[in-house]
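Quiz preparation item.
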């Protein structure tokens, strides 16, 4: 009997908490989303918004406080690591920094095979295939990471994510540490792989241009909450939440990274205890915004926003 499910990956009211300086920080707060087969779902937000924490929680690489995670219709929230082993081959990640994510002591071939080790598989026959798929000569398998440029290293990291034939890959800022001239090549490579392998992506980024180029659907995250979500066409083309508008205003051009850095630091007392978390930064804030937390409201077929302006 074939399994039936609407989305490849789903979360229901997912919550992740950390303790820092005696305070409890709700890094992910009640996030619900669905990622379809073969689609790119992008979570966009500034540093500290909780988007990378959300991705790690979905992969069950960090502990969750509340909510549920579903993969191919199965509730995997409380599965033990031994029970997750067969599922892990279908869920992989490409990390942000290709200079830190590759073990400098290992040859490329051994790095690419890493995801197969817990499964007890050698994978020698697959290394050449995935290296070729990412545009590298299979001969590089005997070399070490320090012999390659940043773009080539990221291709190696992508090859590693593909070795186990996954259905779902998290892309955590996959081009942000690369030269601008290389970024487009990597994005086009990822789209080509998606077309060939029918893989689903969860893309994490702060760059609206990357989101627009890559995404089918988008969620905008601020201080652990989804404040706007929908099709990329709607959210990026017709932004409704003031925070989404702010992100669009800092994309792309001269001074972009400097402006993003200015947005990165959430000052003590900036996040209200009650009400909308963005209220103290919002030029449209009203009294209700400071006393009541808005929930996502459907404003069109492919567009939801958590804001009292709508």
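Solution:
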């Amino acid at each position: 009997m074939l399994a039936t499910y609407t989305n490849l990956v789903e979360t229901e009211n997912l919550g992740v908490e950390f303790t820092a300086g005696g305070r409890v920080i709700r890094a992910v707060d009640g996030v619900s989303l669905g990622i379809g087969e073969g689609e790119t779902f992008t979570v966009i937000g500034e540093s500290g918004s909780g988007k990378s924490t959300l991705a790690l929680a979905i992969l069950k690489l960090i502990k969750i406080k509340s909510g549920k995670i579903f993969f191919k219709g199965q509730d995997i929230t409380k599965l033990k690591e031994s029970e997750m082993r067969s599922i892990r081959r279908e869920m992989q990640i490409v990390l942000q920094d290709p200079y830190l994510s590759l073990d400098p002591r290992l040859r490329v071939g051994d790095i690419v095979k890493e995801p197969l080790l817990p499964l007890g598989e050698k994978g020698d026959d697959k290394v050449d295939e995935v290296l070729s798929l990412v545009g590298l000569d299979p001969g590089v398998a005997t070399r070490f990471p320090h012999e390659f440029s940043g773009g080539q290293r990221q291709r190696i990291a992508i090859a590693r994510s593909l070795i186990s034939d996954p259905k779902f890959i998290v892309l955590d800022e996959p081009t942000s540490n690369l030269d601008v001239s290389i970024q487009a090549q990597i994005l086009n490579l990822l789209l080509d792989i998606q077309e060939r392998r029918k893989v689903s992506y969860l893309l994490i980024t702060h760059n609206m241009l990357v989101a627009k180029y890559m995404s089918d659907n988008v969620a905008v995250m601020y201080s652990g909450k989804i404040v706007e979500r929908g099709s990329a066409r709607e959210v990026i083309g017709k932004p409704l939440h003031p925070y989404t508008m702010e992100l669009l205003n800092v994309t792309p051009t001269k001074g972009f990274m400097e402006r993003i850095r200015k947005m990165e630091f959430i000052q003590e007392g900036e996040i209200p205890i009650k009400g909308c978390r963005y209220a103290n930064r919002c030029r449209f804030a009203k009294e209700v915004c400071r006393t009541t937390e808005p929930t996502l409201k459907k404003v069109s077929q492919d567009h939801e926003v958590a804001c009292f302006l709508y």
